Automatic annotation (TrEMBL):
GO terms for molecular function: iron ion binding; L-ascorbic acid binding; procollagen-proline 4-dioxygenase activity. SMART domains: P4Hc. It comes from Sinocyclocheilus rhinocerous. Keywords: Dioxygenase, Iron, Metal-binding, Oxidoreductase, Vitamin C. Its cofactor is L-ascorbate. The keyword Secreted does not apply. Gene3D superfamilies: q2cbj1_9rhob like domain. GO terms for cellular component: endoplasmic reticulum. Residues 121-219 form the Fe2OG dioxygenase domain. The gene is LOC107721781. This is Prolyl 4-hydroxylase subunit alpha-2-like. Pfam families: 2OG-FeII_Oxy_3 (PF13640).
Amino acid sequence: MRDPVAAYTLLSQLINITSKRQRALSCRYSTGGGNPRLMYAPVKEEVEWDEPRIIRYHGIISDREIEILKNISRPLLSRSLTFEGVSKIRTSQSVFLKEDKPVVSHFNQRIADITGLSMKSAEDLHVQNYGIGGRYEPHYDAWDDENERIATFLIYMSDVEIGGATVFPQVGVALKPKKGSAVFWYNLRKNGNVNWYTEHAGCPVLRGNKWVANKWIHEFGQEFRRPCSLSYWE
């Protein structure tokens, strides 16, 4: 846009719209829809964005649990892959952890309690480590395939001094890693289509070390937990 006045006006409008949307966001204690395991210990839930709906859960994993997961993962880490194999768009080390370890099984149950989704078709917990310069360029977790990744639960197992944010470029959202918290979003709309606003990236780590864990939850088993919609807009 060559007209500086028009550009400034548009920028002001976007900032105003973003500010209004952020003011409408909220925090609450959540029981995961009345889950018995959360009735006396509800989780702290913060809505980070409305479309796509991105929710951050605070304090869902302890420092002790984090250290156990790190210690299990360190000797098993290897270069992270994409569905195409080794890729230049992703620079990290990672490992999938099976449920045969009590801390992993316990945490998978916690994710199920919080989200209300079935873990039967979910992928194993995916622990990742990003060193200096580690990043993941813009991508989608869903690929419009059968038994697609309906949702993503991303756990932050460390703070990052500079860099390392999870960004959603389509909507202008940046989520800073906060140790012990997790963010959750649906990759698919209720009609089964990919929500293209869920494109996201991991910004380069400029100072520090970034540890995260992903739980990718799939469609099969969610039929009565997140009913489908025939609406094009849902």
